[in-house]
Amino acid sequence: MTPVRGTGGLSRRFVCALPPALLATGCAGPHRGTGRPGDPIVLTLLSHYASGALRDALQGPVDEWNATHDRVKVRTLAVEFTDLLTTFMVRQAAGQGADILHPYCLWNGQLVRAGVLRPAPPGHAEEVRRGYGAAAVGSASVGGRVYGYPTEVQTYALYFNRRLLREAGVGGPPRTWAELEEAAYRTSRRDRYGNTLVQGFGLSTYDDATTVGQTLALLNAAGGTFVSADGRSTAIDSPAGRAVFELEHRLVARGAGAPGVNVYQAFPSGRVAMVIGAGWWTDSLKALMGKAYEDVGVAPVPVPRPGGRRATLSTGFMLGVNTAARHPREAWEFLRWLNTDKVAAGHAGKGARATRMSRLQVSVGSLTGRADDMRTLLGSGGDPNRHAFLDALAHAVPEPNGPGAQAAKSLLRKNIEALWTGQSSVEEALRSTRRQVDREVSRAW
Question: What is the DSSP string of 28-92?
Answer without folding.
Answer: -------SSTTS-EEEEEEES--SHHHHHHHHHHHHHHHHH-SSEEEEEEE--HHHHHHHHHHHH
